[in-house]
Amino acid sequence: MSTDDDNAGELARVYALLLARAGETQVELRLDATRRACELLGDIHTAAPTITVTGTNGKTSTARMIDSLITAHELRVGRFTSPHLHSVTERISVDGAPVSAETFVRIFDEIAPYLDIVDAQLEAEGRARLTYFEALTVLAFAVFADAPVDVVVTEVGMGGQWDSTNVADAQVCVFTKIGLDHQAFLGDTIEEIATTKSGILDRTVEPSPAPSPVAITAVQDEAAQAVLDAEAARREVPLVTEERDFRLLDRQRAVDGQLITVQGRRDVYSDVFVPLHGIHQAHNAAVAIVAAEAFLGAEDKPLDQETVAEGLARATSPGRTELVRTGPSVVVDGAHNPDAAHVLADTLAEAFDFDYVVMVLAMLEDKDIGGVLEELHRSADVFVVSETLSARALPAEKLAEAAREWVDEDDVFVASDLNAALMKAIDLANGVDAKSPGIVVTGSLYTVAEARLLLGRGEDQ
């Protein structure tokens, strides 16, 4: 019988093998490599119908809510999301929970010889071997085929057209809000980014297990919506659009979340509790409901009010405007681009009664630092800046220099690491004459992951 220590050691071995591959920022613009591996393993990418979620912000939360809704409908769901906060096993979920280390290792060892075959073929062609994300995608589909699951929910890693998750032809294609991010790979304009993301509408499997998909989209900027309309029309895919075809009718703040009423395509779902904060999560929930409606449309038993209430009540989204401590209150959020920072600032103003905010900020160097600070400075009384553990971390002094352009120099503190930053933030929050001081930790999911560990929330998923 294997012990926890044995499983941890084996998981570390497998994770090291995955990390030895080209990392997630070393993207290969291709689908055929992932497809080769999936086909060698018995077409595992077609083993269950798929719902694919792309967009810029809100992908993970929406994917998790779709998972919860379909699980409440008594179907078995496999979910593949990224990035992870604490353990790579979080990326591959079955029955609403990360797969065990034992399963992760077992399936990897079973597929490893096939990954080696594809690597050898690629290298013989003078091409790069399977990347970390490509190998992880193959592993996810293998886990889901082994389980087996009734439906797979995948979150696109980056873009859509050439993202390895797109090896599966999705039955339901979901678009969350599209904005500017990853411009080095996706393009410098909303139109270019939306075009790449619309690639999830492509059919790449012959004969496709989902020849007649449906697309669901959140409210988009005019430029992104025009692209999605055109691309869906070109492929003759029905496009179900928020505000045009479904809408969030009402929402009210509630303890530990909000009550929402959604006009879906089949029904109105009234006063549904969502244990997540912010209008963005209410819109994400509306999109998730309509995606679940679309997927279950062929079922004998359609989605109903009771299932929606049960599914959304169980929804979680760690690291997204998440209260992880009280006395003083600490909220963590993975906002790493201006759109996400804008949403965070609005959510703090609406959902939390802080009258003094210490903003702990650590970011990656390739992000829009000025754009994020422009949004966050309206919520912050003081900044404590630090560095993430990532090799791509922005130096703390450089971040402090940028922050001083938005707030007084005396309101920017520099900490050498995140632990020191949290200690400083707690001192500042406890030392101020305020009824309800709060600490907000943000700038990157790397930052959030480390903060959750330091605050004893690393096991909560």
TrEMBL record:
<keyword id="KW-0436">Ligase</keyword>
<keyword id="KW-0067">ATP-binding</keyword>
<dbReference type="InterPro" id="IPR004101">
    <property type="entry name" value="Mur_ligase_C"/>
</dbReference>
<comment type="similarity">
    <text>Belongs to the folylpolyglutamate synthase family.</text>
</comment>
<dbReference type="InterPro" id="IPR036615">
    <property type="entry name" value="Mur_ligase_C_dom_sf"/>
</dbReference>
<keyword id="KW-0479">Metal-binding</keyword>
<feature type="domain" description="Mur ligase C-terminal">
    <location>
        <begin position="319"/>
        <end position="433"/>
    </location>
</feature>
<feature type="domain" description="Mur ligase central">
    <location>
        <begin position="53"/>
        <end position="292"/>
    </location>
</feature>
<dbReference type="InterPro" id="IPR013221">
    <property type="entry name" value="Mur_ligase_cen"/>
</dbReference>
<dbReference type="Pfam" id="PF02875">
    <property type="entry name" value="Mur_ligase_C"/>
</dbReference>
<protein>
    <recommendedName>
        <fullName>tetrahydrofolate synthase</fullName>
        <ecNumber>6.3.2.17</ecNumber>
    </recommendedName>
</protein>
<dbReference type="InterPro" id="IPR001645">
    <property type="entry name" value="Folylpolyglutamate_synth"/>
</dbReference>
<dbReference type="Pfam" id="PF08245">
    <property type="entry name" value="Mur_ligase_M"/>
</dbReference>
<keyword id="KW-0547">Nucleotide-binding</keyword>
<dbReference type="InterPro" id="IPR036565">
    <property type="entry name" value="Mur-like_cat_sf"/>
</dbReference>
<keyword id="KW-0460">Magnesium</keyword>
